[in-house]
Amino acid sequence: MQLPFTGVVIEVDNPTHPLLELQPFYEVEYYSYQDTKAMRVVVIWLLLLLPNYFPWFSISPCMGNQIDNLNRLIASRRSSNPPRSDSELWARLDDVGNSHNSPVYVGSQKGLMQADKIDKLPGQPEGVDFDQYAGYVTVDPAADRALFYYFVESPANSLNKPFVLWLNGGPGCSSFGYGAMQELGPFRVNSDGKTLYINEYAWNNVANVLFLESPAGVGFSYSKNSSDYTDVGDKRTAEDSYVFLLNWLERFPQYKTRDFFIAGESYAGHYVPQLASYILSRNKGTNQTLINLKGIAIGNAWIDDDICTKGLFDYLWTHALNSDETNEGINKYCDFDSGNLVSKMADATDQCDKYQSQGVTEMGDIDLYGIYAPLCNLSAIKPGQDGNVLNFDPCSGIHVRSYLNLAKVQASLHAKATKWSGCGDVGWTDSPSSILPQIRDLAKVIRVWIYSGDTDGRVPVTSSRYAIKTLRLPVETAWQPWYSESEVGGYVVGYKGVIFTTALHLNGTLTEDYL
Ligand SMILES: *[C@@H]1O[C@H](CO)[C@@H](O)[C@H](O)[C@H]1NC(C)=O
Ligand SMILES: *[C@@H]1O[C@H](CO)[C@@H](O)[C@H](O)[C@H]1NC(C)=O
Ligand SMILES: *[C@@H]1O[C@H](CO)[C@@H](O)[C@H](O)[C@H]1NC(C)=O
Ligand SMILES: *[C@@H]1O[C@H](CO)[C@@H](O)[C@H](O)[C@H]1NC(C)=O
């Protein structure tokens, strides 16, 4: 089993840190939960796009969610070589005259849109009525650094539908392999690893959706300068994504003026607000293309290390996955307010680690990304072509990996022949421990949605709620249920500038998938 982040810049002095122990079994299992989240999100997205049905949503936007390389990143904060976390790396939105106005690289995109058009994906079902594109956008010609994208248009009236960029987390995991192929994209991979079936709940039913593999080193995205794989973090991810967008909009100029939203999940709780802030800041000073950003959405999003970690362990306790003693120990010895996760009590670090470890052990071998979901059993995979979006497949990540490594699939995607994997071996040299200041700023100028599925234990709803609470925003629209047909699908509350919404597990995986 190949672990993401092996042999990288992140050094971990404390390999027994409890969150690291989560890593080995998630590498395979965490693929599974993604389906269910995507389903829920479809409903939420409909809410976003159809505000007339839900008038209290008028301030709206957003979503987000995903994490696994995250375990190592969090642990690395206590290593001898932690990622930089200073917020000075980030220009604030109210900065004027910062360095954000020198032009960025934009190359000629002539003829490239047509060249990127996908004829047909191998094993694709009949009757596909929308256009698909895939290819590379060079973001740094000197380094020959290029990012891979997959773009699906809406089947009907695509010109009148919004334009959405989707980002998965990690850091270092693929928006194409997870987001597009297991969550919100138009196709899923059958258990034969060779053919596709339709996801009727795909977001491109209601929007034109762009999936970006970023930064270079993730999925099909690459750089000829190998130091780009080790010397990367939040900052370059945002900068490269911005350069990508400007070039992509030259390639697809009909999208320049379209309402633009950025959505993502998990560690994209960093990527999405950071890219949004960067775009708004650049928009002020640039004589290049203005990006028509209207809102962001982050789901089950990692937005503050301390708050999200506390939320994780409180979730395990409130969902009867941890004992009372463990939760009491964690809350006694881990000081989530201090910023360094441990209290000043003698021995607190060891005790905090001990209780966190105990929490992970007590939980047992479950899929933390969907605590009620079955685990993937590799030896039980029966290759077939009967995949159905209503039947949750915990092994979908395995099928996607097989599919994306077929030579004819790579060729049809215009991708360079390579060994594709879901999460890249990329280093992570900067990562603010909290994104809340950026979210607070963004909520004043664009629409912000924070959404959360309630069966994700890795970046759980408790974490989102604790984080929002620290923003101290006044409630403008009281907590209330939202419905999918006649069933409660979740809850929604409108704060000044931020919408928070949840999606329910309901009564079983079938129903959950259906969401
Ligand atoms: C944009 O500004 C840069 C200097 O910042 C200048 O070199 C360039 O010519 C300008 N481009 C246009 C299209 O005005
Ligand atoms: C590769 O990138 C590093 C860091 O940006 C830079 O210092 C170096 O000059 C680059 N190497 C080449 C061959 O371009
Ligand atoms: C996995 O599947 C195999 C074959 O069906 C079965 O024998 C085995 O018990 C399963 N393992 C688990 C942990 O369910
Ligand atoms: C869950 O709900 C569905 C549809 O409402 C129903 O058909 C199914 O029997 C329920 N499952 C359980 C386990 O209650």
TrEMBL record:
Enzyme Commission (EC) number: 3.4.16.-
Q: Where in the cell is it found?
A: Secreted
Q: What InterPro entries has UniProt attached to this entry?
A: AB_hydrolase_fold (IPR029058), Peptidase_S10 (IPR001563), Ser_caboxypep_ser_AS (IPR018202)
Q: Specify the domain of life of the species encoding this protein.
A: Eukaryota
Any stretches that span the bilayer, and where are they? 41-59
Whether Transmembrane helix counts among this entry's keywords is yes
Q: Which UniProt keywords apply?
A: Carboxypeptidase, Hydrolase, Membrane, Protease, Secreted, Transmembrane, Transmembrane helix
> Per the annotation, which location comes first and is thus the protein's main one?
secreted
Which family is this sequence assigned to?
Belongs to the peptidase S10 family.
Q: What is this protein called?
A: Carboxypeptidase
